[in-house]
Amino acid sequence: MRRPGMIRRCGAGNLKDRRGGAGLLAQLRRPPGGRDARIMLFAQLLDRTGTGVWAASCVLYFTFVVGLDARQLGLLLGAAGVAGIAGSPLAGHLADRFPVRTLLIGSHLLRLGTVCAMLVITRFEVLLLVVAVTSLGERAAKMLEMLFATRAAGEQRATYQALSRSAANAGYALGSGIAAIGLAVGTREAYHVLILGNALSFLAAAVLVWRTREQDGHGGPGRGSAQAAAGTGDAAAAGPTTVANPWRDRGYLRFVLLDIPMCLDDSILGVGLPLWLVDHTDAPHAVVPAFLFINTVLVVALQLKVSARVRRPRQAAGAVGLYGLTTLACCTLLAVTPEHGAWAASITLLAAAALVTAAELIRSVTSWELAVSLAPQEARASYLGVAGMSQSIQKSAGPLLLTGAVMEAGPAGWLVLGAAVAGLSVVQRRAGLRRLDAQQAAAVPAGSRTTAENGPAAVS
Question: Cβ–Cβ contacts within 10 Å for residue 260, how many?
């Protein structure tokens, strides 16, 4: 009875989205998922603010306060990356057995403890373990936030994801600004204040998550997921989406594997652009902060609009090809960036930053929607945990790929990288559409048995 009103409100919201920033503010006040989603978005804002503080200051802290050399620092960051890979599947596995809300609070409190421990630990071997556990907790928290969103926002998860990314980027920007103040002071005490600020952000996020309610999963994972999985035994042969174990689902693992290069925009922005500027152009180093500024502004301003155009699984699969073309355009610009001439190089690099941000906007929607849509609902938590590995693996391997192969090959390296990503995006698009077709075909018998639930959608 209330659906027409809901449609009118959604239409008004979309009109505001087209008008500009008012749509974002209105959606943040009344996000999909209601009160709990609003609290979670605020928790993410605080969490990412603390993370932004730490990301901007950790290298200098470990170098000038702890006294690590370059080799030790590399091992430390490498261990963090490897541990982060395990965070997502571990969280997904546990989320099939324990409440997501409880696990997320635990992840925040785990990081609270490990970050505080860094204030007193100077021994490298112990610090290695502490940083690895911190990274594991961070990736687990992000995966659990993703699962919370799929349950709280339901079919409006793309809109929630856009709001989540806008809040996260605002938090990162705010955290970087706070870190700049502490780094300007530069004393040991100032670094300790920054670390405590990061720790307090985890405590505040845990308190906010505690105020939410556990989501029922809309029939998804939970204490009854084992029964749901057992009940689909007869349908297991109907298609790959009925496989309850993601590690045995070759179709889903193929999606996760192909999703790794679909996340390379992160390394291009954070590693490729700055190093290419420094090593191969005359552009001033002051341009480097502008890359992050452009990225943050565009994500906050445009993520909601991009997400509004990719609301369905098939739309997400189709947009993967656009990601490849955008990445190819960015890599082409980097390949033709003039070595001499500060102005020309700066303008070209800033245009490349805008293109890689456009790729990021597309990727954040396509990876999110496909990871959810291609997973069977009765085992969604464990599947999303495996899907979360793609970003973690990219964060570990992406910088090595860029510095060890792409930039060593010069402009040709960028062209090969762009062409490879574009080609793999076509493979990912086709694989995603085939799996969605298989899911639709498998749903037809169920639709004939439960016409009231699926009816016309099942036979269309």
Answer: 17
